[in-house]
Amino acid sequence: MASLKAIIHFVMLPILTILIIIAGVSLGQTRYLSLPIPQSTSIATLLLPILTGIGIQISRPLLTQSTNRSTSYPSWLLPALIFILLTIYDTILTTLATTALIPSETQTCLLETRWDSMFHGHDVAALRRIQDTHQCCGLRSMRHKPWPFPDNHGADGCRNLYRNRTGSCLGPWRRDLRVNAGMVLVVAVVCWLVKVITILLIYRRRDNLSLRHGMRRDYVASLTNGDDTEDNGQAAARGRIEAAYRDEVTPEGNEEETVANGAPRRDRDRDGGMVVQPSSMHGHGNEWRN
User: In terms of Cα–Cα distance, which of 20, 18, 19, 30 is closest to 180?
Assistant: First the structure.
């Protein structure tokens, strides 16, 4: 199994890099198309993957230390605080993105408010970028607050200037808002998943290490108990052999033993060993016979 450090470096960090790119594209589109998404939200979305990567790099060694050793209060406090703060961060972005993503009157109101501010502020560059990008004129219709401004060119000024344009900008501009809100939502959700998966991997590694250490302790204990049992068995066998040998050996004071019914006598030889001697001779002849 790949190490936790390798997984973070070769899987998690590339994912966070992709999220940074997505957030950067969302920020650029929001500014270019003047979408009614607060610029602070777009910047926060861009910073979220960066902060998530920093939080993982800070938390990983601390969590590994607190799981490999006895639980230390400062060791897990900082990772827990980082996780909580980043989760709140994710939740706020997810809520904002969901609000802008779901079709509703609020969404249309946001678009109209944004268009009105550009129209009444005579923000020509912003209105032209939206109309040129989608080849459209006006907001709700081609005559509804278009550029060129009606006070100088009439309500049909945009249609007369761009005769190939046949639609208003509300539909495609709303679609841009949903796409960018979806990007924000993806960044927030994936960052949260990356944090959760990283924590699960850390604790799974802790469990595997604990299991290995437990198996190693049991193995060493079994070897130690086996050696003790073997030593005890050898000592007991040695004791039985010595006891049996003492029972067989005749004391030195009784070197001659008379055996009843003329059986051969046993005596010790000079070296202390047992010898067999013939029985004594009688008047009837030698009884050393078959």
Answer: 30
| Closest C-alpha among 21, 30, 11 to residue 48 | 21
Residues 6+ apart with CB under 8 A from 141: 168
Q: Do 199 and 63 contact (CB within 8 A), yes or no?
A: yes
Determine the distance from the C-alpha atom of residue 155 to the mean position of all C-alpha atoms in its chain, rounded to a whole number: 61
| Dihedral sign, Cα of residue 109, residue 114, residue 119, residue 125 | negative
CA distances 277 to 248, 253, 263, Å, are 18, 18, 10
**Phi, psi values for residue 31, rounded to 5°:** -75, -40
Q: Dump pLDDT digits (tens) for 87-109.
A: 999 999 999 999 888 888 888 99
Query: Structure pTM?
Result: 0.67
CA 255 – CA 244 distance, rounded (Å): 20
CA 46 to chain centre: 24
CA-angle at 217, arms to 212 and 220, nearest 5°: 125
Distance in angstroms (rounded) separating the CA atoms of residues 195 and 80:
11
Q: What is the DSSP letter of 278?
A: P
Residue 282: DSSP 8-state:
B
